[in-house]
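User: Hey, my collaborator sent me this sequence without any context and asked if I could get a structure. I don't really work with proteins. Can you help?
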Amino acid sequence: MTELALLALQVTDPLRLPNLVPFMIFTVIKMITVFTVTLVGVALLTLAERKISAWIQDRHGPNRVGPGGLLQPAADGLKNIMKEETYPDAAYKPIFILAPMLAFIPALLTFAVIPFASPISTRWGRIDMVVADLPIGFLYILALTSLGVYGIVLAGWSSNNKYSLLGGLRSSAQMVSYEISMGLSTVAVLLVAGNVSLNEIIFQQATTVWNFFGLTIAFFIFLVAAFAETNRLPFDLPEAESELIAGYHTEYSAMKFSMFFIAEYSNMVTASALIATLFFGGWDIPFTLWDNQAPWTIWKTLATATAFSVKVLFFLFFYMWVRWTLPRFRYDQLMSLGWKFMLPVALVYVIVIAALLLWLDWLGIRPGAMWGAILGGVNVMLAAILFVMLDHGKLISPASSRAQADRLARLRAMGVRPALTPDSVH
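Assistant: No problem. I've predicted the 3D structure and written it out in C-alpha coordinate form, which is a compact way to encode the shape of the chain:
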Protein backbone atom coordinates (compact mmCIF):
# COMPACT_ATOMS: atom_id res chain seq x y z
CA MET A 1 0.00 0.00 0.00
CA THR A 2 1.44 3.36 -1.04
CA GLU A 3 1.97 6.29 1.29
CA LEU A 4 -0.86 8.16 -0.48
CA ALA A 5 -3.27 5.29 0.17
CA LEU A 6 -2.23 5.12 3.84
CA LEU A 7 -2.82 8.86 4.20
CA ALA A 8 -6.26 8.58 2.59
CA LEU A 9 -7.19 5.71 4.93
CA GLN A 10 -6.15 7.66 8.01
CA VAL A 11 -8.15 10.70 6.91
CA THR A 12 -11.36 8.83 6.03
CA ASP A 13 -11.28 6.09 8.68
CA PRO A 14 -11.89 7.23 12.28
CA LEU A 15 -10.10 4.07 13.44
CA ARG A 16 -6.56 4.88 12.37
CA LEU A 17 -4.77 1.95 10.83
CA PRO A 18 -2.19 1.61 13.67
CA ASN A 19 -5.07 1.58 16.24
CA LEU A 20 -7.26 -0.97 14.48
CA VAL A 21 -5.63 -4.05 16.01
CA PRO A 22 -5.78 -2.79 19.63
CA PHE A 23 -9.41 -1.75 19.04
CA MET A 24 -10.31 -5.25 17.88
CA ILE A 25 -8.46 -6.84 20.80
CA PHE A 26 -10.23 -4.66 23.35
CA THR A 27 -13.58 -5.36 21.69
CA VAL A 28 -13.04 -9.13 21.89
CA ILE A 29 -12.02 -8.81 25.56
CA LYS A 30 -15.18 -6.81 26.33
CA MET A 31 -17.35 -9.34 24.47
CA ILE A 32 -15.91 -12.27 26.41
CA THR A 33 -16.19 -10.40 29.71
CA VAL A 34 -19.80 -9.31 29.23
CA PHE A 35 -20.89 -12.71 27.88
CA THR A 36 -19.20 -14.59 30.74
CA VAL A 37 -20.48 -12.26 33.46
CA THR A 38 -24.01 -12.44 32.06
CA LEU A 39 -24.14 -16.24 31.89
CA VAL A 40 -22.51 -16.74 35.29
CA GLY A 41 -24.72 -14.00 36.75
CA VAL A 42 -27.86 -15.64 35.36
CA ALA A 43 -26.87 -18.93 37.00
CA LEU A 44 -26.31 -17.19 40.33
CA LEU A 45 -29.57 -15.27 39.98
CA THR A 46 -31.49 -18.54 40.07
CA LEU A 47 -29.86 -19.26 43.41
CA ALA A 48 -30.46 -15.70 44.60
CA GLU A 49 -34.16 -15.91 43.75
CA ARG A 50 -34.56 -19.15 45.69
CA LYS A 51 -32.67 -17.71 48.66
CA ILE A 52 -34.64 -14.44 48.61
CA SER A 53 -37.97 -16.27 48.32
CA ALA A 54 -36.97 -18.47 51.26
CA TRP A 55 -36.02 -15.37 53.28
CA ILE A 56 -39.33 -13.67 52.48
CA GLN A 57 -41.31 -16.83 53.38
CA ASP A 58 -39.24 -17.49 56.53
CA ARG A 59 -37.81 -20.83 55.46
CA HIS A 60 -34.52 -22.34 54.31
CA GLY A 61 -33.46 -22.10 50.70
CA PRO A 62 -31.01 -24.44 48.91
CA ASN A 63 -28.32 -25.37 51.44
CA ARG A 64 -27.24 -28.93 50.64
CA VAL A 65 -25.00 -28.58 47.56
CA GLY A 66 -21.80 -26.73 48.40
CA PRO A 67 -21.25 -24.22 51.22
CA GLY A 68 -24.52 -22.40 51.77
CA GLY A 69 -25.96 -23.96 48.62
CA LEU A 70 -23.58 -22.04 46.32
CA LEU A 71 -23.16 -25.03 44.00
CA GLN A 72 -26.89 -25.52 43.51
CA PRO A 73 -26.90 -23.72 40.09
CA ALA A 74 -24.09 -26.02 38.92
CA ALA A 75 -26.06 -29.07 40.09
CA ASP A 76 -29.21 -27.83 38.31
CA GLY A 77 -27.26 -27.16 35.12
CA LEU A 78 -25.63 -30.60 35.19
CA LYS A 79 -29.00 -32.24 35.77
CA ASN A 80 -30.55 -30.47 32.77
CA ILE A 81 -27.60 -31.33 30.54
CA MET A 82 -27.85 -35.02 31.50
CA LYS A 83 -31.64 -35.24 31.10
CA GLU A 84 -33.17 -36.85 28.05
CA GLU A 85 -34.46 -34.58 25.30
CA THR A 86 -38.13 -35.33 24.65
CA TYR A 87 -40.12 -34.39 21.54
CA PRO A 88 -43.94 -34.60 21.51
CA ASP A 89 -45.26 -36.72 18.65
CA ALA A 90 -47.52 -33.96 17.35
CA ALA A 91 -44.93 -31.16 17.65
CA TYR A 92 -43.48 -29.45 14.57
CA LYS A 93 -39.88 -30.32 15.37
CA PRO A 94 -37.91 -27.73 13.32
CA ILE A 95 -39.72 -24.81 14.97
CA PHE A 96 -39.89 -26.67 18.30
CA ILE A 97 -36.06 -26.83 18.36
CA LEU A 98 -35.55 -23.30 17.00
CA ALA A 99 -37.89 -21.51 19.42
CA PRO A 100 -35.65 -21.67 22.54
CA MET A 101 -32.78 -20.23 20.49
CA LEU A 102 -34.97 -17.36 19.27
CA ALA A 103 -35.76 -16.51 22.88
CA PHE A 104 -32.19 -17.03 24.12
CA ILE A 105 -30.09 -15.14 21.53
CA PRO A 106 -31.79 -11.69 21.63
CA ALA A 107 -31.70 -11.78 25.42
CA LEU A 108 -27.89 -12.04 25.37
CA LEU A 109 -27.29 -9.58 22.53
CA THR A 110 -29.19 -6.68 24.08
CA PHE A 111 -26.53 -5.95 26.72
CA ALA A 112 -23.95 -5.20 24.01
CA VAL A 113 -24.81 -1.47 23.80
CA ILE A 114 -25.23 -0.69 27.53
CA PRO A 115 -22.25 1.24 29.02
CA PHE A 116 -21.21 -0.40 32.28
CA ALA A 117 -18.36 1.90 33.39
CA SER A 118 -16.58 5.13 32.55
CA PRO A 119 -14.08 5.02 29.66
CA ILE A 120 -10.41 4.35 30.18
CA SER A 121 -7.46 6.05 28.50
CA THR A 122 -4.79 3.88 26.88
CA ARG A 123 -1.79 4.56 24.69
CA TRP A 124 -4.00 3.69 21.69
CA GLY A 125 -6.75 6.15 22.65
CA ARG A 126 -9.88 6.19 24.78
CA ILE A 127 -11.66 2.85 25.22
CA ASP A 128 -15.37 3.07 26.04
CA MET A 129 -16.63 0.46 28.49
CA VAL A 130 -19.36 -0.84 26.19
CA VAL A 131 -19.12 -3.69 23.73
CA ALA A 132 -20.61 -1.68 20.83
CA ASP A 133 -20.94 2.06 21.31
CA LEU A 134 -23.69 2.53 18.73
CA PRO A 135 -25.01 6.08 18.22
CA ILE A 136 -28.49 4.53 18.16
CA GLY A 137 -27.87 2.06 20.98
CA PHE A 138 -31.19 2.65 22.67
CA LEU A 139 -33.16 2.01 19.48
CA TYR A 140 -31.11 -1.16 19.00
CA ILE A 141 -32.28 -2.42 22.39
CA LEU A 142 -35.95 -1.72 21.66
CA ALA A 143 -35.70 -3.47 18.30
CA LEU A 144 -33.85 -6.53 19.59
CA THR A 145 -35.95 -7.10 22.70
CA SER A 146 -39.03 -7.15 20.46
CA LEU A 147 -37.69 -10.28 18.78
CA GLY A 148 -37.90 -12.32 21.98
CA VAL A 149 -41.65 -12.69 21.62
CA TYR A 150 -41.16 -14.76 18.45
CA GLY A 151 -39.41 -17.50 20.41
CA ILE A 152 -42.24 -17.64 22.93
CA VAL A 153 -45.04 -17.60 20.36
CA LEU A 154 -43.37 -20.21 18.15
CA ALA A 155 -42.67 -22.41 21.18
CA GLY A 156 -46.37 -22.35 22.09
CA TRP A 157 -47.53 -23.00 18.53
CA SER A 158 -45.01 -25.70 17.58
CA SER A 159 -45.70 -27.76 20.73
CA ASN A 160 -49.22 -28.52 19.45
CA ASN A 161 -50.47 -28.28 23.02
CA LYS A 162 -53.48 -26.17 23.95
CA TYR A 163 -51.89 -24.87 27.15
CA SER A 164 -48.70 -23.95 25.31
CA LEU A 165 -50.66 -22.24 22.55
CA LEU A 166 -52.66 -20.19 25.05
CA GLY A 167 -49.42 -19.17 26.78
CA GLY A 168 -47.89 -18.11 23.46
CA LEU A 169 -50.96 -16.09 22.49
CA ARG A 170 -51.08 -14.41 25.88
CA SER A 171 -47.41 -13.53 25.63
CA SER A 172 -47.73 -11.98 22.19
CA ALA A 173 -50.72 -9.85 23.24
CA GLN A 174 -49.03 -8.83 26.48
CA MET A 175 -45.68 -7.86 24.97
CA VAL A 176 -47.25 -5.93 22.10
CA SER A 177 -49.51 -4.07 24.53
CA TYR A 178 -46.73 -3.00 26.89
CA GLU A 179 -44.01 -2.36 24.29
CA ILE A 180 -45.96 0.69 23.14
CA SER A 181 -46.10 2.17 26.63
CA MET A 182 -42.44 1.35 27.23
CA GLY A 183 -41.38 3.04 24.01
CA LEU A 184 -43.45 6.15 24.72
CA SER A 185 -42.09 6.43 28.26
CA THR A 186 -38.56 6.56 26.87
CA VAL A 187 -39.47 9.32 24.40
CA ALA A 188 -39.48 11.70 27.37
CA VAL A 189 -35.93 10.57 28.23
CA LEU A 190 -34.79 11.16 24.67
CA LEU A 191 -36.41 14.62 24.64
CA VAL A 192 -34.55 15.61 27.80
CA ALA A 193 -31.22 14.15 26.66
CA GLY A 194 -31.55 15.28 23.04
CA ASN A 195 -29.76 12.11 21.95
CA VAL A 196 -30.36 8.37 21.58
CA SER A 197 -26.82 7.43 22.61
CA LEU A 198 -26.80 5.82 26.05
CA ASN A 199 -23.46 7.43 26.93
CA GLU A 200 -24.91 10.86 26.17
CA ILE A 201 -27.96 10.09 28.32
CA ILE A 202 -25.63 9.22 31.21
CA PHE A 203 -23.59 12.42 30.84
CA GLN A 204 -26.80 14.50 30.67
CA GLN A 205 -27.97 13.06 34.00
CA ALA A 206 -24.56 13.59 35.58
CA THR A 207 -24.60 17.32 34.74
CA THR A 208 -28.25 18.06 35.60
CA VAL A 209 -30.43 15.65 37.60
CA TRP A 210 -31.16 11.93 37.43
CA ASN A 211 -34.19 11.23 35.28
CA PHE A 212 -35.83 9.44 38.18
CA PHE A 213 -36.35 12.85 39.80
CA GLY A 214 -36.97 14.75 36.56
CA LEU A 215 -39.13 12.13 34.77
CA THR A 216 -40.83 10.26 37.60
CA ILE A 217 -43.93 9.22 35.69
CA ALA A 218 -41.82 7.98 32.76
CA PHE A 219 -39.85 5.86 35.24
CA PHE A 220 -43.06 4.41 36.70
CA ILE A 221 -44.43 3.51 33.26
CA PHE A 222 -41.11 2.01 32.15
CA LEU A 223 -40.81 -0.04 35.35
CA VAL A 224 -44.30 -1.53 35.03
CA ALA A 225 -43.79 -2.22 31.32
CA ALA A 226 -40.43 -3.88 32.08
CA PHE A 227 -42.17 -6.32 34.43
CA ALA A 228 -44.71 -7.12 31.73
CA GLU A 229 -42.04 -7.47 29.00
CA THR A 230 -40.04 -9.96 31.06
CA ASN A 231 -43.18 -12.01 31.94
CA ARG A 232 -42.57 -11.62 35.65
CA LEU A 233 -45.16 -11.44 38.40
CA PRO A 234 -47.62 -9.82 38.60
CA PHE A 235 -47.62 -10.16 34.80
CA ASP A 236 -46.64 -13.82 34.36
CA LEU A 237 -49.86 -14.71 32.50
CA PRO A 238 -48.01 -16.57 29.66
CA GLU A 239 -46.83 -19.22 32.15
CA ALA A 240 -49.54 -19.04 34.80
CA GLU A 241 -49.03 -22.36 36.58
CA SER A 242 -52.50 -22.43 38.13
CA GLU A 243 -54.13 -22.05 34.70
CA LEU A 244 -51.74 -23.24 31.98
CA ILE A 245 -49.50 -25.81 33.76
CA ALA A 246 -46.27 -24.16 32.59
CA GLY A 247 -47.52 -22.12 29.66
CA TYR A 248 -45.55 -21.97 26.45
CA HIS A 249 -42.75 -24.28 27.67
CA THR A 250 -45.00 -27.06 28.99
CA GLU A 251 -43.68 -29.60 26.45
CA TYR A 252 -39.99 -28.69 26.79
CA SER A 253 -37.38 -30.57 28.78
CA ALA A 254 -33.65 -30.62 29.53
CA MET A 255 -31.55 -27.72 28.22
CA LYS A 256 -34.23 -26.40 25.84
CA PHE A 257 -36.38 -25.86 28.92
CA SER A 258 -33.47 -24.14 30.68
CA MET A 259 -32.84 -21.81 27.74
CA PHE A 260 -36.20 -20.11 28.34
CA PHE A 261 -35.21 -19.41 31.93
CA ILE A 262 -31.77 -18.18 30.88
CA ALA A 263 -33.53 -15.83 28.46
CA GLU A 264 -35.91 -14.63 31.18
CA TYR A 265 -33.15 -13.85 33.66
CA SER A 266 -31.00 -12.27 30.93
CA ASN A 267 -33.93 -10.01 30.07
CA MET A 268 -34.22 -9.15 33.75
CA VAL A 269 -30.55 -8.12 33.81
CA THR A 270 -30.97 -6.05 30.65
CA ALA A 271 -34.13 -4.38 31.95
CA SER A 272 -32.46 -3.58 35.28
CA ALA A 273 -29.41 -2.18 33.47
CA LEU A 274 -31.68 -0.06 31.25
CA ILE A 275 -33.60 1.30 34.25
CA ALA A 276 -30.30 2.17 35.94
CA THR A 277 -28.97 3.80 32.76
CA LEU A 278 -32.05 5.76 31.69
CA PHE A 279 -33.27 6.93 35.10
CA PHE A 280 -30.48 6.54 37.68
CA GLY A 281 -27.43 7.87 35.88
CA GLY A 282 -26.00 4.55 34.71
CA TRP A 283 -22.42 4.26 35.93
CA ASP A 284 -22.50 7.81 37.34
CA ILE A 285 -21.55 8.08 41.01
CA PRO A 286 -23.94 10.53 42.72
CA PHE A 287 -22.87 13.74 44.47
CA THR A 288 -19.57 14.00 42.61
CA LEU A 289 -18.28 14.99 39.17
CA TRP A 290 -14.94 13.23 39.68
CA ASP A 291 -16.05 10.24 37.66
CA ASN A 292 -17.39 12.28 34.71
CA GLN A 293 -14.25 14.21 33.83
CA ALA A 294 -10.88 13.42 32.30
CA PRO A 295 -8.31 12.06 32.96
CA TRP A 296 -9.90 8.61 32.61
CA THR A 297 -8.10 6.16 34.89
CA ILE A 298 -8.47 2.52 35.84
CA TRP A 299 -9.67 3.55 39.32
CA LYS A 300 -12.52 5.59 37.84
CA THR A 301 -13.46 2.63 35.66
CA LEU A 302 -13.53 0.25 38.64
CA ALA A 303 -15.45 2.71 40.83
CA THR A 304 -18.09 3.44 38.18
CA ALA A 305 -18.43 -0.27 37.33
CA THR A 306 -19.10 -0.93 41.02
CA ALA A 307 -21.71 1.84 41.16
CA PHE A 308 -23.43 0.47 38.06
CA SER A 309 -23.42 -3.07 39.47
CA VAL A 310 -24.98 -1.91 42.74
CA LYS A 311 -27.83 -0.18 40.87
CA VAL A 312 -28.46 -3.22 38.66
CA LEU A 313 -28.40 -5.62 41.64
CA PHE A 314 -30.90 -3.44 43.49
CA PHE A 315 -33.42 -3.67 40.65
CA LEU A 316 -32.82 -7.41 40.29
CA PHE A 317 -33.63 -7.74 43.98
CA PHE A 318 -36.73 -5.59 43.39
CA TYR A 319 -37.84 -7.98 40.62
CA MET A 320 -37.62 -10.91 43.03
CA TRP A 321 -39.18 -9.00 45.90
CA VAL A 322 -42.23 -8.16 43.79
CA ARG A 323 -42.57 -11.75 42.57
CA TRP A 324 -42.88 -13.13 46.09
CA THR A 325 -45.08 -10.29 47.36
CA LEU A 326 -47.80 -9.48 44.83
CA PRO A 327 -50.51 -11.75 43.38
CA ARG A 328 -51.03 -12.27 39.67
CA PHE A 329 -53.29 -9.97 37.65
CA ARG A 330 -56.30 -11.36 35.87
CA TYR A 331 -55.96 -11.25 32.10
CA ASP A 332 -58.65 -8.57 31.68
CA GLN A 333 -56.88 -6.47 34.30
CA LEU A 334 -53.61 -6.89 32.42
CA MET A 335 -55.08 -5.61 29.16
CA SER A 336 -57.05 -2.87 30.91
CA LEU A 337 -53.94 -1.55 32.66
CA GLY A 338 -51.91 -1.52 29.45
CA TRP A 339 -54.42 0.05 27.05
CA LYS A 340 -56.76 2.11 29.24
CA PHE A 341 -54.23 3.56 31.68
CA MET A 342 -50.56 3.30 30.72
CA LEU A 343 -50.90 4.17 27.03
CA PRO A 344 -53.01 7.34 27.53
CA VAL A 345 -50.81 8.48 30.43
CA ALA A 346 -47.63 7.95 28.38
CA LEU A 347 -49.06 9.91 25.43
CA VAL A 348 -50.17 12.84 27.60
CA TYR A 349 -46.87 12.81 29.49
CA VAL A 350 -44.82 13.08 26.30
CA ILE A 351 -46.85 16.12 25.26
CA VAL A 352 -46.45 17.76 28.69
CA ILE A 353 -42.67 17.20 28.79
CA ALA A 354 -42.22 18.46 25.23
CA ALA A 355 -44.20 21.61 26.04
CA LEU A 356 -42.24 22.13 29.28
CA LEU A 357 -38.88 21.80 27.49
CA LEU A 358 -39.99 24.28 24.79
CA TRP A 359 -41.09 26.73 27.50
CA LEU A 360 -37.74 26.41 29.32
CA ASP A 361 -35.89 26.94 26.06
CA TRP A 362 -38.03 30.02 25.29
CA LEU A 363 -37.16 31.43 28.71
CA GLY A 364 -33.48 30.83 27.99
CA ILE A 365 -33.02 28.34 30.84
CA ARG A 366 -30.37 25.84 29.77
CA PRO A 367 -29.75 22.38 31.31
CA GLY A 368 -28.27 22.86 34.74
CA ALA A 369 -29.27 23.17 38.38
CA MET A 370 -32.28 25.50 37.85
CA TRP A 371 -33.40 23.53 34.78
CA GLY A 372 -33.33 20.28 36.78
CA ALA A 373 -35.13 21.87 39.75
CA ILE A 374 -37.99 23.13 37.55
CA LEU A 375 -38.31 19.79 35.79
CA GLY A 376 -38.28 17.93 39.10
CA GLY A 377 -40.87 20.24 40.68
CA VAL A 378 -43.28 19.83 37.77
CA ASN A 379 -42.90 16.05 37.90
CA VAL A 380 -43.60 15.96 41.63
CA MET A 381 -46.91 17.76 41.02
CA LEU A 382 -47.80 15.49 38.08
CA ALA A 383 -46.90 12.36 40.07
CA ALA A 384 -49.01 13.50 43.03
CA ILE A 385 -52.03 14.06 40.78
CA LEU A 386 -51.57 10.76 38.97
CA PHE A 387 -51.03 8.59 42.02
CA VAL A 388 -53.92 10.15 43.94
CA MET A 389 -56.22 9.28 41.04
CA LEU A 390 -54.58 5.85 40.80
CA ASP A 391 -55.06 5.24 44.51
CA HIS A 392 -58.79 5.93 44.26
CA GLY A 393 -59.23 3.36 41.54
CA LYS A 394 -60.59 5.74 38.92
CA LEU A 395 -58.26 4.81 36.06
CA ILE A 396 -57.51 1.09 36.15
CA SER A 397 -60.99 -0.39 36.30
CA PRO A 398 -61.57 -3.33 36.57
CA ALA A 399 -58.22 -3.77 38.34
CA SER A 400 -59.71 -1.95 41.35
CA SER A 401 -62.78 -2.36 43.50
CA ARG A 402 -66.09 -0.97 42.26
CA ALA A 403 -67.82 -1.28 45.61
CA GLN A 404 -68.94 2.05 47.09
CA ALA A 405 -67.05 3.07 50.23
CA ASP A 406 -70.20 4.10 52.14
CA ARG A 407 -71.87 0.75 51.37
CA LEU A 408 -68.83 -1.17 52.62
CA ALA A 409 -68.79 0.96 55.77
CA ARG A 410 -72.46 0.20 56.47
CA LEU A 411 -71.93 -3.52 55.96
CA ARG A 412 -68.91 -3.52 58.27
CA ALA A 413 -70.88 -1.64 60.90
CA MET A 414 -73.60 -4.29 60.67
CA GLY A 415 -71.01 -7.03 61.02
CA VAL A 416 -71.80 -8.41 57.57
CA ARG A 417 -69.00 -9.62 55.31
CA PRO A 418 -69.60 -8.36 51.72
CA ALA A 419 -70.02 -11.06 49.08
CA LEU A 420 -67.08 -11.41 46.75
CA THR A 421 -68.16 -10.66 43.21
CA PRO A 422 -66.04 -10.15 40.11
CA ASP A 423 -66.62 -6.39 40.45
CA SER A 424 -65.56 -6.26 44.10
CA VAL A 425 -62.41 -8.38 44.00
CA HIS A 426 -59.21 -6.37 44.10
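In plain terms: The CA atoms of residues 43 and 73 lie 6 Å apart. You can pass these C-alpha coordinates on to your collaborator as they are.
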